[in-house]
Amino acid sequence: MTPPSSTSSPSTAAPARTAGGAAFVGVGPGDPGLLTLRAAELIAAADVVVLDGARPGAARAAAQRHAGPDAEVVETTAADGGAPLPLAGRAKLVTAPAKAGRRVVRLFEGDAASTPALAEELAACRRAGVRFEVVPGVSVATAVPLYAGVPTTTSRAADVHAVDAALGEGPVDAVSGVPGTVVLTGTADELVGAAKALVVSGRSGDQDVAVTSRGTTTAQRTAVATLASLADVLAAEGDALPEPLVAVVGPGTAKREKLAWFENRPLFGWRVLVPRTQQQSGTAVELLAAAGAVSEVVPTIAVEPPRTPHQMEKAVRGLVTGRYEWVGFTSANAVTAVREKFREYGLDARAFSGLKVAAVGGVTAQALRDWGIEPDLVPSGEQSASGLLAEWPPYDEVLDPIDRVFLPRADIATESLVEGLQAIGWEVDDVTAYRTVRAAPPPAPVRDAIKAGAFDAVLFTSSSTVRNLVGIAGKPHPATVVACIGPATCATAEELGLRVDVRAEEPSIAALVDALAAHGAQLRAAAEEAGEPVLRPSERRTGARRRSR
What we know:
alpha/beta, Rossmann fold, 4 domains
């Protein structure tokens, strides 16, 4: 077993708090992975976070993701949520708390340097005697085209000109006669006006334009037109391309069909239901996002302490005093339960020194590694209680000085592992480490979405998640792709009348998401081969096939 690490936390930890001041931070175009490390550090350390408007966006998402629970989030709009405050009002939101000794972070969408308000607000801080720093962000004008598969520089266009179309025809006229790529940002009407100005100034009406909405997010959508047809295309798209928009005019637009990597990810735009607790769903959410999907976590079980703590307390004392040869963990929840009990007693992972540790599978093993413990036994085959038992060595009175195993488990765990260990010579302390209870039903909109087929897929990671989801929210719609992590979970889903579409090759979250992504890629390839539009399962509800009975 690997001893726990004594090294300090990584450099992404929040910086130490100092006297009040202000940081003006660009949060990038929308993809949370494009936020810089410095930006994340400052937001995490902030006492006050100031952002523009009440609408969802990259700034609000960054604040929700990184700001501490005690941070105050302030909007630069009037009290009634209407028009933006004038400069004096915006500046006061930053300078007043900073002068009072609080750490203020002012967030801007994209790159702070491309925001007209930045210079004015920096000048206000200077006049107020507030120290400040500026953290650049990834620019909308560079990131969004690349996420749309449109390189802004090519052998035919070495220069890039970014123009805010809201500023009128003047800035557009200034770049119209200059060779290179023009990147426009603005509303549909503003882009149409800019396109007309470019044509009047000499650009060909046949020149291609790629227009992207919600760039770098999983809701990204791109339409292609020409300068002459842009008005008609945007009118036809309507609400399908919500504003603000980013348009690219240049030779790179012709390369989009071959280079559109982001929107061609296997699960791009899929809405996936993850019936797990928030604490357990992190890996699944990250892997799904990497495949292009949007996750919605719906807890189906709640984990609670055992009704009486006596068993666990006795077992932990025995672990410390040398009562056991092995400790067997059959879930990540069991690791958490033991870890919390250790915390109560002021113990840490060093108490496992000299013990052999077993984990039922990869997720449980990772929970142990996160604690600083490297398990001695993880099944190489089926990652289940039976798979663990198949590889557990029998008790040998010569090699094993102690014949007892500590098995912290859920109150509803089956007895097969205990009986199997006893059959190969081990004495087992089968201890209830935690109780699982059915979670409360999700909100009505989520239940309706599940039944109506608004989710493209659902990930089932255990038999209990299947039973509990059906119990608290009903069966998923027949069009929803059902993905299961192992044979027992698949069997439970089929017993409840669900057709299992995706089965993981091995019982791990990574394998399950990989299998779902492969299924999504097959659906995309089949649609393209048939010359049909690529539709998500939720968009194909009318043709949904029946479940097996």
